[in-house]
Design goal:
This protein has 14 helices and 23 strands. The chain is of the alpha+beta class and about 475 residues long. The protein is globular and about 65 Å long.
């Protein structure tokens, strides 16, 4: 598909700004190129001073790099955002009801809404979670729901991230950078604020404190360490929340509590915002070789002595095969039709769907069901014949590990290049916080942009960049 056939959110088919961009475009045309370039050059200085970096892998030997940032904002009208926000709330509510069910009565399986093997044989389903009482029945406290557009009114959910969703620190720093470099833009039009996210996150965690806590709960953020690709975000959020930033070596089981070593002795932790994957959380319950977890954590969790956010086992709702059933999950638990649509998904574990995928692989995007960061996938239209044949063998060897989706004509937004404005594909990750009887969605989210011309892969780990996201009144 040629670039002019994609829906560009900034410019229409005639190269004129759409209504949401009229004020920004007017400002942009008034800027002198030398002055604008000078201010754009300051972005790298700001990011480097703030430490806004991203490691391309979890290999400590790899060099960190600054995440590319484009100063052209992604602008969404408030009236369009309202539907997205309501749809995300509906989705997060249904996912939490689903997680509660599969770790208790499993009624949805008995009613045959979802194939039993898809859940019980899922590597992200944790039998250790069955029967554990969760405060407020909230399993996914923090969610990142990936949204894409293919037209003015065509919005889809591409993925649900409810295991350990990341990227919110870049969203916040992008806004801070724009306000620092271009303060005049924020007086031209009313842009919804996002700066309250750390406070909202802290309140969300406190509202989901353990059942047996009577005093002011203590929050700690558990990080794998400085070598982790998202360590900047871990340190940033802990600082913004005034929470303790801890690693496994800082924590120890003391009686029925997880405690933190301090110069004044052991200090109990009540809420653990973990940025460590399930299988490394507790070597006594999961991977016995893990050095990233706390021995005995799951027993304290089971006894109600600590809240873990997000709860272990939420990754089953991240599964891209389970994703294909989210519309049915919404209907089953809420008796509502989905507000946000899914992308059509073919499960390779199903024989006739596998046959279709193999016959049409050059038209589809193939993904691992537990894949993330743009890894382990094949974009059929962009793949060579050799890559396609090799990927076919992978799918045939383990069909249950893969799903396929049509190659979407993702919307674009203009970026600044050396030769002027140029369109690049984008997606959006809004963040939602769930507590008792309340789901709060941040006004906007992290817009990721594929900086390579023609590329559909927006992930930072695959060379993508980011933009500030504005929700504006018409």
């Amino acid at each position: 598909m040629s670039p002019e056939n994609y829906y560009d959110e900034f410019l229409n088919e005639k190269g004129k700004p759409r209504s949401t961009y009229t004020k920004f475009h007017s400002w942009f045309l008034q800027q002198r190129k030398p002055s604008l370039k000078k201010r754009i050059a300051k972005v790298e200085e700001i990011f480097r001073t703030s430490g806004i970096s991203f490691n391309l892998s979890d290999d400590v030997s790899e060099d960190e790099r600054l995440i590319p940032f484009d100063v052209i904002p992604r602008i969404i009208a408030a009236r369009d955002w309202e539907k997205i926000e309501i749809g995300i709330k509906q989705r997060v509510q249904a996912i939490n009801l689903f997680l509660k069910d599969i770790y208790s009565s499993q009624k949805i399986l008995r009613d045959k809404i979802i194939p039993t093997e898809l859940i019980l044989r899922n590597s992200s389903f944790l039998p250790q979670m069955i029967g554990i009482k969760i405060p407020n029945d909230i399993y996914a406290h923090i969610s990142g729901i990936d949204i894409v557009r293919t037209g003015a009114s065509n919005t889809y959910v591409l993925e649900d991230n409810v295991r350990v969703p990341s990227g919110v620190s870049y969203m916040l720093e992008n806004r801070e950078t724009m306000m620092h470099l271009f303060p005049e833009l924020f007086s031209v039009q009313k842009i919804k604020e996002i700066n309250s996210y750390p406070v909202d996150l802290s309140e969300c965690l406190l509202e989901n404190s353990p059942l047996h806590t009577s005093k002011e709960p203590i929050v700690a953020l558990l990080t794998p360490g400085t070598f982790n690709s998202a360590y900047f975000e871990h340190a940033f959020l802990a600082d913004q929340m005034s929470a303790e930033l801890v690693q496994a070596g800082d924590l120890i089981l003391d009686g029925k509590k997880i405690t933190m070593r301090t110069i004044n002795g052991l200090k109990p932790i009540d809420i653990l915002y973990r940025r460590v994957d399930d299988f490394f959380l507790d070597p006594l319950s999961f991977n016995q070789d893990s050095l990233l977890g706390i021995p005995g954590l799951m027993e304290v969790f089971r006894e109600g002595g600590i809240t873990i956010a997000n709860s272990p086992g939420t990754g089953v709702a991240d599964d891209k095969a389970v994703y294909s059933f989210i519309p049915k999950i919404i209907k089953y638990y809420l008796d509502q039709d989905p507000i946000l649509r899914n992308v059509r998904t073919f499960r390779c574990a199903v024989k006739n769907e596998l046959d279709y995928v193999l016959c049409n692989i050059n038209k589809l995007v193939i993904k691992e069901v537990h894949g993330s960061g743009g890894k382990g996938m094949l974009v059929g239209p962009a793949a060579s014949k050799k890559e396609t044949e090799e990927f076919k063998l992978k799918v045939l060897s383990y069909p249950e590990r893969y799903i396929a989706q049509p190659t979407l004509a993702l919307s674009t937004c203009q970026i600044i290049t050396n030769s002027g404005l140029s369109p690049r594909h984008i997606d959006l990750r809004p963040f939602a916080l769930a507590s008792k009887n309340k789901i709060k969605v941040t006004a906007g989210g992290l817009t990721r942009v594929a900086l390579k011309k023609g590329s559909l892969v927006v992930n930072s780990s695959q060379g993508g960049g980011t933009k500030d996201t504005w929700i504006v009144e018409s």
